[in-house]
Protein backbone atom coordinates (compact mmCIF):
# COMPACT_ATOMS: atom_id res chain seq x y z
CA UNK A 1 0.00 0.00 0.00
CA UNK A 2 1.25 3.43 -0.86
CA UNK A 3 1.78 5.72 2.11
CA UNK A 4 3.44 9.10 2.34
CA UNK A 5 4.37 11.57 5.03
CA UNK A 6 5.32 15.21 5.06
CA UNK A 7 5.94 18.13 7.34
CA UNK A 8 3.67 21.10 6.74
CA UNK A 9 4.72 24.51 7.99
CA UNK A 10 2.02 26.41 9.82
CA UNK A 11 2.89 29.68 11.56
CA UNK A 12 6.58 28.82 11.47
CA UNK A 13 6.12 25.38 13.05
CA UNK A 14 6.17 22.01 11.35
CA UNK A 15 3.25 19.65 11.64
CA UNK A 16 3.51 15.99 10.71
CA UNK A 17 0.94 14.56 8.30
CA UNK A 18 0.85 11.05 6.87
CA UNK A 19 -1.43 9.74 4.17
CA UNK A 20 -2.44 6.35 2.80
CA UNK A 21 -4.64 5.38 -0.11
CA UNK A 22 -5.68 7.35 -3.14
CA UNK A 23 -9.44 7.27 -3.06
CA UNK A 24 -11.73 10.11 -3.95
CA UNK A 25 -13.21 10.20 -0.48
CA UNK A 26 -10.98 11.47 2.29
CA UNK A 27 -10.96 10.58 5.99
CA UNK A 28 -9.10 12.97 8.30
CA UNK A 29 -8.09 11.37 11.63
CA UNK A 30 -7.35 13.09 14.96
CA UNK A 31 -5.77 11.23 17.88
CA UNK A 32 -6.38 11.28 21.64
CA UNK A 33 -4.71 13.30 24.43
CA UNK A 34 -0.92 13.03 24.49
CA UNK A 35 -0.83 10.50 21.67
CA UNK A 36 -0.12 10.72 17.94
CA UNK A 37 -0.93 9.19 14.58
CA UNK A 38 0.31 5.76 15.62
CA UNK A 39 -3.15 5.15 17.05
CA UNK A 40 -4.64 5.02 13.55
CA UNK A 41 -2.08 2.68 11.98
CA UNK A 42 -4.30 -0.36 11.61
CA UNK A 43 -7.42 1.65 10.83
CA UNK A 44 -5.53 3.72 8.27
CA UNK A 45 -4.42 0.67 6.33
CA UNK A 46 -7.83 -1.00 6.32
CA UNK A 47 -9.66 2.16 5.29
CA UNK A 48 -7.14 2.71 2.51
CA UNK A 49 -7.77 -0.86 1.34
CA UNK A 50 -11.46 -0.03 1.28
CA UNK A 51 -10.74 2.78 -1.13
CA UNK A 52 -10.41 5.86 1.00
CA UNK A 53 -7.63 8.40 1.12
CA UNK A 54 -6.71 8.53 4.79
CA UNK A 55 -4.97 11.54 6.32
CA UNK A 56 -3.54 11.27 9.83
CA UNK A 57 -2.09 14.24 11.70
CA UNK A 58 0.07 14.58 14.78
CA UNK A 59 -1.30 17.58 16.65
CA UNK A 60 1.28 20.26 17.63
CA UNK A 61 3.42 19.02 20.49
CA UNK A 62 2.59 15.39 19.73
CA UNK A 63 4.46 12.66 17.86
CA UNK A 64 6.64 14.14 15.15
CA UNK A 65 5.05 17.60 15.09
CA UNK A 66 6.84 20.60 16.55
CA UNK A 67 5.64 21.97 19.87
CA UNK A 68 3.12 24.76 19.57
CA UNK A 69 4.63 28.22 19.69
CA UNK A 70 3.44 28.98 23.20
CA UNK A 71 3.96 25.52 24.67
CA UNK A 72 1.43 22.79 25.50
CA UNK A 73 -2.09 23.62 24.33
CA UNK A 74 -5.13 23.48 26.57
CA UNK A 75 -7.65 24.88 24.09
CA UNK A 76 -9.23 22.24 21.87
CA UNK A 77 -10.68 25.01 19.71
CA UNK A 78 -7.11 25.99 18.86
CA UNK A 79 -6.40 22.44 17.75
CA UNK A 80 -9.59 22.50 15.63
CA UNK A 81 -8.41 25.66 13.87
CA UNK A 82 -5.02 24.06 13.26
CA UNK A 83 -6.65 20.99 11.72
CA UNK A 84 -8.80 23.15 9.46
CA UNK A 85 -5.63 24.91 8.33
CA UNK A 86 -4.05 21.55 7.49
CA UNK A 87 -7.13 20.64 5.45
CA UNK A 88 -6.72 23.87 3.49
CA UNK A 89 -2.98 23.45 3.03
CA UNK A 90 -3.24 20.02 1.48
CA UNK A 91 -6.43 20.92 -0.38
CA UNK A 92 -8.71 18.22 0.97
CA UNK A 93 -12.16 18.34 -0.59
CA UNK A 94 -14.96 17.85 1.90
CA UNK A 95 -13.25 15.23 4.05
CA UNK A 96 -14.91 12.98 6.58
CA UNK A 97 -13.55 13.58 10.06
CA UNK A 98 -12.74 10.79 12.50
CA UNK A 99 -11.55 11.64 16.00
CA UNK A 100 -11.30 10.03 19.41
CA UNK A 101 -11.37 11.53 22.92
CA UNK A 102 -9.91 15.03 22.58
CA UNK A 103 -9.82 14.16 18.88
CA UNK A 104 -13.56 13.45 19.12
CA UNK A 105 -14.18 16.84 20.67
CA UNK A 106 -11.90 18.51 18.12
CA UNK A 107 -13.80 17.08 15.15
CA UNK A 108 -17.09 18.23 16.69
CA UNK A 109 -15.56 21.68 17.11
CA UNK A 110 -14.49 21.60 13.46
CA UNK A 111 -18.06 20.68 12.49
CA UNK A 112 -19.40 23.66 14.43
CA UNK A 113 -16.99 25.95 12.60
CA UNK A 114 -17.02 24.46 9.12
CA UNK A 115 -19.85 21.99 8.47
CA UNK A 116 -20.14 23.13 4.88
CA UNK A 117 -16.59 22.03 4.20
CA UNK A 118 -17.12 18.52 5.57
CA UNK A 119 -18.86 15.38 4.35
CA UNK A 120 -19.46 14.01 7.83
CA UNK A 121 -18.05 13.44 11.28
CA UNK A 122 -17.51 10.38 13.46
CA UNK A 123 -16.71 11.48 16.99
CA UNK A 124 -15.67 8.72 19.39
CA UNK A 125 -15.35 8.83 23.17
CA UNK A 126 -16.41 12.46 23.28
CA UNK A 127 -19.31 14.79 23.94
CA UNK A 128 -20.14 18.46 23.63
CA UNK A 129 -20.24 19.49 27.27
CA UNK A 130 -17.45 20.31 29.64
CA UNK A 131 -15.73 17.21 30.89
CA UNK A 132 -14.57 15.98 34.25
CA UNK A 133 -14.53 18.80 36.74
CA UNK A 134 -14.57 21.37 33.96
CA UNK A 135 -11.47 23.18 35.10
CA UNK A 136 -7.97 23.95 33.88
CA UNK A 137 -4.93 22.11 35.10
CA UNK A 138 -3.77 23.72 38.30
CA UNK A 139 -0.26 25.21 38.06
CA UNK A 140 1.22 22.77 40.55
CA UNK A 141 -0.16 19.93 38.46
CA UNK A 142 2.51 20.68 35.88
CA UNK A 143 5.40 20.52 38.34
CA UNK A 144 7.45 17.35 38.51
CA UNK A 145 7.87 17.93 42.23
CA UNK A 146 4.14 17.62 42.82
CA UNK A 147 3.17 15.00 40.29
CA UNK A 148 5.22 11.82 40.75
CA UNK A 149 5.08 8.41 39.07
CA UNK A 150 3.57 9.66 35.84
CA UNK A 151 4.72 6.59 33.96
CA UNK A 152 3.04 4.18 36.39
CA UNK A 153 -0.10 6.28 36.52
CA UNK A 154 -0.26 6.30 32.72
CA UNK A 155 0.32 2.58 32.49
CA UNK A 156 -2.34 1.57 34.97
CA UNK A 157 -4.78 4.32 34.06
CA UNK A 158 -4.82 3.64 30.35
CA UNK A 159 -4.87 -0.10 30.90
CA UNK A 160 -8.08 0.38 32.86
CA UNK A 161 -9.59 2.58 30.15
CA UNK A 162 -9.33 -0.28 27.67
CA UNK A 163 -12.34 -2.52 27.12
CA UNK A 164 -12.98 -5.94 28.67
CA UNK A 165 -12.96 -7.68 25.30
CA UNK A 166 -9.51 -6.49 24.28
CA UNK A 167 -6.71 -9.09 24.35
CA UNK A 168 -4.14 -8.50 27.09
CA UNK A 169 -1.26 -7.98 24.67
CA UNK A 170 -3.17 -5.24 22.87
CA UNK A 171 -3.99 -3.54 26.16
CA UNK A 172 -0.33 -3.77 27.12
CA UNK A 173 0.79 -2.17 23.87
CA UNK A 174 -1.77 0.58 24.20
CA UNK A 175 -0.68 1.34 27.77
CA UNK A 176 3.02 1.29 26.91
CA UNK A 177 2.50 3.76 24.08
CA UNK A 178 0.90 6.13 26.58
CA UNK A 179 3.96 5.81 28.82
CA UNK A 180 5.99 7.56 26.12
CA UNK A 181 4.03 10.78 26.36
CA UNK A 182 5.29 14.18 27.41
CA UNK A 183 2.95 14.44 30.34
CA UNK A 184 2.93 18.25 30.23
CA UNK A 185 1.31 17.93 26.82
CA UNK A 186 -1.06 15.23 28.06
CA UNK A 187 -2.14 17.17 31.13
CA UNK A 188 -2.70 20.27 28.99
CA UNK A 189 -4.76 18.23 26.54
CA UNK A 190 -6.81 16.84 29.42
CA UNK A 191 -7.30 20.35 30.74
CA UNK A 192 -8.57 21.29 27.27
CA UNK A 193 -10.93 18.31 27.40
CA UNK A 194 -12.35 19.47 30.70
CA UNK A 195 -12.87 23.06 29.61
CA UNK A 196 -14.10 22.46 26.06
CA UNK A 197 -17.74 23.44 25.76
CA UNK A 198 -19.63 23.74 22.48
CA UNK A 199 -22.97 22.79 23.98
CA UNK A 200 -24.74 25.90 22.73
CA UNK A 201 -23.32 25.54 19.19
CA UNK A 202 -24.09 21.87 18.60
CA UNK A 203 -27.40 22.72 16.97
CA UNK A 204 -25.62 24.59 14.19
CA UNK A 205 -23.81 21.51 12.90
CA UNK A 206 -25.10 20.86 9.40
CA UNK A 207 -23.20 17.77 8.29
CA UNK A 208 -23.94 14.13 9.21
CA UNK A 209 -22.61 13.14 12.64
CA UNK A 210 -22.25 9.82 14.39
CA UNK A 211 -21.16 9.57 18.02
CA UNK A 212 -19.58 6.36 19.27
CA UNK A 213 -18.77 5.37 22.84
CA UNK A 214 -17.31 2.17 24.23
CA UNK A 215 -19.40 0.27 26.75
CA UNK A 216 -16.38 -0.05 29.08
CA UNK A 217 -15.22 3.56 28.79
CA UNK A 218 -15.75 4.73 32.36
CA UNK A 219 -14.35 8.16 31.45
CA UNK A 220 -17.15 8.97 29.01
CA UNK A 221 -20.69 8.43 30.32
CA UNK A 222 -22.98 7.20 27.57
CA UNK A 223 -25.65 9.55 28.88
CA UNK A 224 -23.52 12.55 27.92
CA UNK A 225 -22.96 11.15 24.46
CA UNK A 226 -26.69 10.59 24.06
CA UNK A 227 -27.41 14.15 25.23
CA UNK A 228 -24.90 15.49 22.74
CA UNK A 229 -26.42 13.52 19.89
CA UNK A 230 -29.85 14.85 20.80
CA UNK A 231 -28.63 18.41 20.21
CA UNK A 232 -27.10 17.79 16.77
CA UNK A 233 -29.66 17.69 13.94
CA UNK A 234 -29.91 14.15 12.58
CA UNK A 235 -27.02 12.79 14.64
CA UNK A 236 -26.83 9.12 15.50
CA UNK A 237 -25.06 7.52 18.40
CA UNK A 238 -24.16 4.06 19.52
CA UNK A 239 -22.47 2.11 22.30
CA UNK A 240 -19.89 -0.48 21.25
CA UNK A 241 -19.93 -3.54 23.56
CA UNK A 242 -16.73 -4.65 25.27
CA UNK A 243 -14.75 -1.64 24.08
CA UNK A 244 -13.18 1.15 26.11
CA UNK A 245 -11.81 4.58 25.30
CA UNK A 246 -9.84 3.72 22.15
CA UNK A 247 -12.10 2.00 19.60
CA UNK A 248 -9.65 2.38 16.70
CA UNK A 249 -7.03 0.44 18.66
CA UNK A 250 -9.35 -1.97 20.42
CA UNK A 251 -11.75 -3.14 17.70
CA UNK A 252 -9.99 -5.67 15.47
CA UNK A 253 -12.30 -4.79 12.59
CA UNK A 254 -12.44 -1.09 13.31
CA UNK A 255 -11.84 -0.07 9.69
CA UNK A 256 -14.89 -2.01 8.54
CA UNK A 257 -17.03 -0.49 11.26
CA UNK A 258 -15.85 3.00 10.36
CA UNK A 259 -16.60 2.28 6.71
CA UNK A 260 -20.14 1.28 7.68
CA UNK A 261 -20.56 4.49 9.67
CA UNK A 262 -19.43 6.64 6.74
CA UNK A 263 -21.50 4.60 4.32
CA UNK A 264 -24.57 5.23 6.45
CA UNK A 265 -23.92 8.95 6.09
CA UNK A 266 -23.67 8.84 2.35
CA UNK A 267 -24.74 5.45 0.97
CA UNK A 268 -24.92 6.49 -2.66
CA UNK A 269 -21.34 7.68 -2.79
CA UNK A 270 -19.70 4.97 -0.77
CA UNK A 271 -21.61 1.90 -1.86
CA UNK A 272 -20.01 -1.33 -3.05
CA UNK A 273 -16.61 -0.97 -1.50
CA UNK B 1 -30.62 -20.35 69.34
CA UNK B 2 -29.29 -23.54 67.85
CA UNK B 3 -25.51 -23.68 67.60
CA UNK B 4 -24.29 -24.51 64.14
CA UNK B 5 -20.88 -25.36 62.83
CA UNK B 6 -19.31 -22.57 60.84
CA UNK B 7 -19.17 -24.67 57.73
CA UNK B 8 -22.91 -25.17 57.95
CA UNK B 9 -23.65 -21.48 58.04
CA UNK B 10 -24.73 -19.67 54.96
CA UNK B 11 -23.91 -16.04 54.41
CA UNK B 12 -20.27 -16.12 53.40
CA UNK B 13 -18.66 -12.83 52.44
CA UNK B 14 -19.67 -12.03 48.91
CA UNK B 15 -23.07 -13.71 49.24
CA UNK B 16 -25.61 -11.38 47.69
CA UNK B 17 -29.34 -11.22 47.32
CA UNK B 18 -31.65 -8.85 45.49
CA UNK B 19 -35.17 -8.37 46.76
CA UNK B 20 -37.98 -6.66 44.95
CA UNK B 21 -39.78 -4.11 47.11
CA UNK B 22 -43.51 -4.41 46.62
CA UNK B 23 -44.71 -2.81 49.82
CA UNK B 24 -44.45 0.92 50.34
CA UNK B 25 -43.28 1.66 53.90
CA UNK B 26 -42.61 5.25 54.81
CA UNK B 27 -39.02 4.93 56.06
CA UNK B 28 -35.91 2.84 55.67
CA UNK B 29 -36.43 0.97 58.91
CA UNK B 30 -39.89 -0.01 57.75
CA UNK B 31 -38.57 -1.25 54.43
CA UNK B 32 -35.86 -3.26 56.11
CA UNK B 33 -38.30 -4.69 58.62
CA UNK B 34 -40.66 -5.86 55.92
CA UNK B 35 -37.80 -7.50 54.06
CA UNK B 36 -35.92 -8.72 57.10
CA UNK B 37 -36.68 -12.41 56.82
CA UNK B 38 -35.53 -12.43 53.24
CA UNK B 39 -32.37 -10.49 54.08
CA UNK B 40 -31.49 -12.83 56.97
CA UNK B 41 -28.32 -14.70 55.85
CA UNK B 42 -29.41 -17.94 57.53
CA UNK B 43 -32.30 -18.92 59.78
CA UNK B 44 -30.40 -18.77 63.08
CA UNK B 45 -28.98 -15.32 62.45
CA UNK B 46 -30.16 -12.69 64.89
CA UNK B 47 -30.25 -9.03 63.98
CA UNK B 48 -27.87 -7.17 66.26
CA UNK B 49 -28.13 -3.68 64.82
CA UNK B 50 -28.60 -1.33 61.93
CA UNK B 51 -25.81 1.05 60.98
CA UNK B 52 -25.17 3.82 58.58
CA UNK B 53 -28.60 5.08 57.76
CA UNK B 54 -30.28 8.31 58.71
CA UNK B 55 -33.70 6.68 58.57
CA UNK B 56 -34.94 9.33 56.20
CA UNK B 57 -38.11 8.80 54.26
CA UNK B 58 -37.73 6.23 51.54
CA UNK B 59 -38.24 7.82 48.15
CA UNK B 60 -41.22 6.30 46.44
CA UNK B 61 -39.09 5.09 43.54
CA UNK B 62 -37.30 2.45 45.64
CA UNK B 63 -38.05 -0.87 44.00
CA UNK B 64 -35.24 -3.18 44.98
CA UNK B 65 -32.93 -4.02 47.86
CA UNK B 66 -29.44 -5.23 47.01
CA UNK B 67 -27.79 -6.94 49.97
CA UNK B 68 -24.21 -8.17 50.21
CA UNK B 69 -22.42 -9.89 53.09
CA UNK B 70 -19.27 -7.81 53.62
CA UNK B 71 -17.65 -9.14 56.78
CA UNK B 72 -17.63 -12.42 58.66
CA UNK B 73 -15.81 -12.49 61.94
CA UNK B 74 -15.64 -15.07 64.69
CA UNK B 75 -14.94 -13.89 68.21
CA UNK B 76 -14.83 -16.71 70.75
CA UNK B 77 -17.97 -18.73 69.90
CA UNK B 78 -19.87 -15.96 68.22
CA UNK B 79 -20.16 -15.33 64.53
CA UNK B 80 -20.74 -11.76 63.46
CA UNK B 81 -21.82 -10.86 59.94
CA UNK B 82 -22.02 -7.46 58.27
CA UNK B 83 -24.49 -6.99 55.46
CA UNK B 84 -24.55 -3.91 53.25
CA UNK B 85 -28.03 -3.14 51.94
CA UNK B 86 -28.60 -0.71 49.10
CA UNK B 87 -32.03 0.59 48.18
CA UNK B 88 -32.22 1.01 44.41
CA UNK B 89 -34.54 2.87 42.09
CA UNK B 90 -35.95 1.30 38.95
CA UNK B 91 -33.00 2.54 36.90
CA UNK B 92 -30.51 1.05 39.36
CA UNK B 93 -29.65 4.38 40.98
CA UNK B 94 -28.72 4.19 44.65
CA UNK B 95 -31.25 6.07 46.74
CA UNK B 96 -30.42 4.84 50.22
CA UNK B 97 -28.09 2.59 52.09
CA UNK B 98 -27.97 0.75 55.38
CA UNK B 99 -25.68 -1.69 57.15
CA UNK B 100 -27.08 -4.66 59.08
CA UNK B 101 -25.14 -6.56 61.70
CA UNK B 102 -26.15 -10.19 62.33
CA UNK B 103 -24.92 -12.57 64.97
CA UNK B 104 -25.17 -16.28 65.69
CA UNK B 105 -23.53 -18.91 67.80
CA UNK B 106 -20.75 -20.62 65.92
CA UNK B 107 -18.74 -23.68 66.70
CA UNK B 108 -16.91 -26.27 64.66
CA UNK B 109 -14.59 -26.18 61.71
CA UNK B 110 -12.65 -23.15 60.58
CA UNK B 111 -13.72 -21.07 57.59
CA UNK B 112 -12.44 -22.03 54.18
CA UNK B 113 -9.13 -20.61 52.99
CA UNK B 114 -10.98 -18.62 50.37
CA UNK B 115 -13.20 -17.05 53.00
CA UNK B 116 -10.13 -16.13 55.03
CA UNK B 117 -8.97 -14.06 52.07
CA UNK B 118 -12.06 -11.88 52.18
CA UNK B 119 -13.87 -12.61 55.46
CA UNK B 120 -12.33 -9.87 57.56
CA UNK B 121 -10.66 -7.38 55.23
CA UNK B 122 -8.65 -4.76 57.06
CA UNK B 123 -8.20 -6.83 60.22
CA UNK B 124 -4.67 -7.47 61.47
CA UNK B 125 -5.01 -11.22 60.86
CA UNK B 126 -6.01 -10.55 57.28
CA UNK B 127 -3.17 -8.04 56.97
CA UNK B 128 -0.66 -10.60 58.19
CA UNK B 129 -1.73 -12.99 55.45
CA UNK B 130 -1.36 -10.24 52.87
CA UNK B 131 2.04 -9.24 54.25
CA UNK B 132 3.29 -12.82 53.95
CA UNK B 133 2.27 -12.84 50.34
CA UNK B 134 3.80 -9.43 49.61
CA UNK B 135 7.07 -10.55 51.16
CA UNK B 136 7.32 -13.20 48.43
CA UNK B 137 6.63 -10.72 45.61
CA UNK B 138 9.90 -9.31 44.26
CA UNK B 139 7.98 -6.66 42.34
CA UNK B 140 6.55 -5.34 45.58
CA UNK B 141 9.97 -5.30 47.23
CA UNK B 142 11.37 -3.36 44.29
CA UNK B 143 8.50 -0.88 44.30
CA UNK B 144 9.09 0.00 47.98
CA UNK B 145 12.89 -0.15 47.87
CA UNK B 146 13.13 3.61 48.52
CA UNK B 147 10.08 3.92 50.76
CA UNK B 148 10.18 4.64 54.48
CA UNK B 149 6.67 4.89 55.85
CA UNK B 150 3.36 3.16 56.52
CA UNK B 151 0.57 2.25 54.13
CA UNK B 152 -2.82 1.50 55.61
CA UNK B 153 -5.76 -0.48 54.30
CA UNK B 154 -9.03 0.63 55.83
CA UNK B 155 -12.26 -1.26 55.22
CA UNK B 156 -15.20 0.23 57.04
CA UNK B 157 -14.21 0.37 60.71
CA UNK B 158 -11.25 -1.98 60.34
CA UNK B 159 -7.73 -0.86 59.56
CA UNK B 160 -4.34 -2.46 59.20
CA UNK B 161 -1.07 -0.68 58.54
CA UNK B 162 2.07 -1.99 56.94
CA UNK B 163 5.23 -0.34 58.22
CA UNK B 164 7.70 -0.48 55.33
CA UNK B 165 11.39 0.28 55.24
CA UNK B 166 13.90 -0.27 52.43
CA UNK B 167 11.87 -2.82 50.52
CA UNK B 168 10.52 -4.81 53.44
CA UNK B 169 7.40 -4.83 55.57
CA UNK B 170 8.84 -4.62 59.06
CA UNK B 171 5.57 -4.57 60.98
CA UNK B 172 1.89 -5.27 60.38
CA UNK B 173 -0.37 -3.76 63.02
CA UNK B 174 -3.58 -1.85 63.56
CA UNK B 175 -1.61 1.33 64.10
CA UNK B 176 1.87 2.51 63.23
CA UNK B 177 3.66 4.65 65.79
CA UNK B 178 3.92 7.74 63.64
CA UNK B 179 0.61 7.28 61.82
CA UNK B 180 0.11 6.20 58.22
CA UNK B 181 1.90 7.88 55.35
CA UNK B 182 -1.41 7.30 53.66
CA UNK B 183 -4.44 5.10 54.16
CA UNK B 184 -6.33 3.46 51.31
CA UNK B 185 -9.89 3.81 52.55
CA UNK B 186 -13.18 2.40 51.33
CA UNK B 187 -16.37 0.91 52.67
CA UNK B 188 -16.62 -2.85 53.15
CA UNK B 189 -18.70 -3.43 50.02
CA UNK B 190 -16.12 -1.73 47.82
CA UNK B 191 -13.32 -3.93 49.11
CA UNK B 192 -15.39 -7.09 48.75
CA UNK B 193 -16.44 -6.22 45.20
CA UNK B 194 -12.85 -5.34 44.30
CA UNK B 195 -11.41 -8.57 45.64
CA UNK B 196 -14.11 -10.92 44.41
CA UNK B 197 -14.85 -9.23 41.09
CA UNK B 198 -13.90 -10.85 37.81
CA UNK B 199 -11.76 -7.85 36.89
CA UNK B 200 -9.32 -5.72 38.86
CA UNK B 201 -11.41 -2.58 38.93
CA UNK B 202 -9.30 -0.55 41.33
CA UNK B 203 -8.75 2.29 38.85
CA UNK B 204 -12.43 2.37 37.91
CA UNK B 205 -13.52 2.38 41.53
CA UNK B 206 -10.99 5.10 42.39
CA UNK B 207 -12.16 7.20 39.45
CA UNK B 208 -15.72 6.94 40.76
CA UNK B 209 -14.63 8.10 44.21
CA UNK B 210 -15.19 4.76 45.91
CA UNK B 211 -11.73 4.97 47.46
CA UNK B 212 -10.44 7.83 49.56
CA UNK B 213 -6.83 8.54 50.33
CA UNK B 214 -6.20 9.87 53.80
CA UNK B 215 -2.73 11.23 54.50
CA UNK B 216 -0.17 12.21 51.91
CA UNK B 217 -1.65 12.42 48.43
CA UNK B 218 1.82 12.95 47.04
CA UNK B 219 3.12 9.71 48.52
CA UNK B 220 0.02 7.91 47.30
CA UNK B 221 0.75 9.04 43.74
CA UNK B 222 4.43 8.21 44.16
CA UNK B 223 3.55 4.71 45.34
CA UNK B 224 1.10 4.03 42.52
CA UNK B 225 2.76 0.77 41.53
CA UNK B 226 2.96 -0.38 45.14
CA UNK B 227 -0.74 0.21 45.67
CA UNK B 228 -1.60 -1.66 42.48
CA UNK B 229 0.59 -4.59 43.54
CA UNK B 230 -1.05 -4.66 46.96
CA UNK B 231 -4.48 -4.83 45.35
CA UNK B 232 -3.27 -7.44 42.90
CA UNK B 233 -2.02 -9.58 45.76
CA UNK B 234 -5.25 -9.13 47.73
CA UNK B 235 -7.14 -10.45 44.71
CA UNK B 236 -4.61 -13.20 44.14
CA UNK B 237 -5.12 -14.50 47.69
CA UNK B 238 -8.74 -15.18 46.79
CA UNK B 239 -7.95 -16.87 43.50
CA UNK B 240 -5.08 -18.87 44.95
CA UNK B 241 -7.46 -20.30 47.49
CA UNK B 242 -10.04 -20.95 44.80
CA UNK B 243 -7.45 -23.06 43.02
CA UNK B 244 -6.55 -24.90 46.24
CA UNK B 245 -10.16 -25.92 46.71
CA UNK B 246 -10.63 -27.38 43.25
Describe the structure.
The complex is a heterodimer of chains A (273) and B (246). The radius of gyration of chain A is 17 Å and the shape is globular. Helix content of chain A is 37%, strand content 18%. Chain A has 273 residues and is α/β, with parallel strands linked by helices. In chain A, strand 5, helix 3 and strand 6 (120-124) form a beta-alpha-beta unit. Chain B has eight helices and eleven strands. In chain B, strands 1, 2, 3, 4, 5 and 6 form a six-stranded mixed β-sheet that branches. In chain B, strands 9-8-7-10-11 form a five-stranded mixed β-sheet. In chain B, strand 7 (148-155) and strand 8 form a beta hairpin.
Features:
heterodimer, A: 273 residues, alpha/beta, 8 strands, B: 246 residues, six-stranded mixed sheet
Which secondary structure elements does this structure contain, and how are they paired or packed?
The complex is a heterodimer of chains A (273) and B (246).
Chain A: E1 3-10, E2 13-20, E3 26-30, H1 41-49, E4 53-58, H2 76-89, E5 96-100, H3 102-114, E6 120-124, H4 150-160, H5 168-179, H6 183-195, E7 209-214, H7 222-231, E8 236-240, H8 247-250, H9 254-265, H10 267-270
Parallel strand pairs in A: 3-4, 3-5, 5-6, 6-7, 7-8
Antiparallel strand pairs in A: 1-2, 2-4
Helix pairs in contact in A: 1-9, 2-3, 4-5
Chain B: E1 4-5, E2 16-20, H1 28-39, E3 46-51, E4 62-75, E5 78-89, E6 94-107, H2 113-118, H3 124-135, H4 138-143, E7 148-155, E8 158-165, E9 168-173, E10 182-186, H5 188-196, H6 202-207, E11 212-215, H7 217-222, H8 224-245
Parallel strand pairs in B: 1-6, 7-10
Antiparallel strand pairs in B: 2-4, 3-6, 4-5, 5-6, 7-8, 8-9, 10-11
Amino acid sequence: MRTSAEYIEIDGRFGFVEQAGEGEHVIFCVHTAGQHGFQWRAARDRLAQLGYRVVVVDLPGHGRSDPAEHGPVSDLGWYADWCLTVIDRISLDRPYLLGCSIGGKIVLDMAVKASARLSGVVSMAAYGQRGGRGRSARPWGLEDASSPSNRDRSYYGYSALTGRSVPAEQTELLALMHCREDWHVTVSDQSGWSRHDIWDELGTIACPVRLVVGEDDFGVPATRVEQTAARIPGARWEVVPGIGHFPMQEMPDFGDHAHAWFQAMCPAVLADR
Amino acid sequence: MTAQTISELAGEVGAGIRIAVTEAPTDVLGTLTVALDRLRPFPAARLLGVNGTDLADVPTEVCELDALVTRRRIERDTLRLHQDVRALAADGALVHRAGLVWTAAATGSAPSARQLAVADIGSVDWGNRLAERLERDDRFASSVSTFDGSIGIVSGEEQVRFRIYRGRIIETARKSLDGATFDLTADERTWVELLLGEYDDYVRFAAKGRFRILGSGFQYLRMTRTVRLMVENCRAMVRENDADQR
